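Table S2 (continued). Query chain:
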Amino acid sequence: MNKYELALVVSAKIDDDARTAAVDKAKAIIEKAGGTVTNVDDWGKKRLAYEIQKMKEGYYYFIQFDGNADSPAQIEANVRIMESVIRYLCVRQDAE
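Corresponding output:
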């Protein structure tokens, strides 16, 4: 099992319940791909470096998880089609 981190930028135009549902759905996608969620960091609302889909702000979430080598590809394929997620990135964390 490798350690990974999924960074999500969720639209600031949706309400709190929809934002929570989007993060829960991302966690469910990770578990469906054979991963185990270890930590979720909520950084809150931040200004974007540049405008995306006419939005200047987004909510940042960082989800750490353990998974197999093929997990990130499966997770990104499913997160890519989530309407409330405006940006995402899945990276492998260095072993310590």
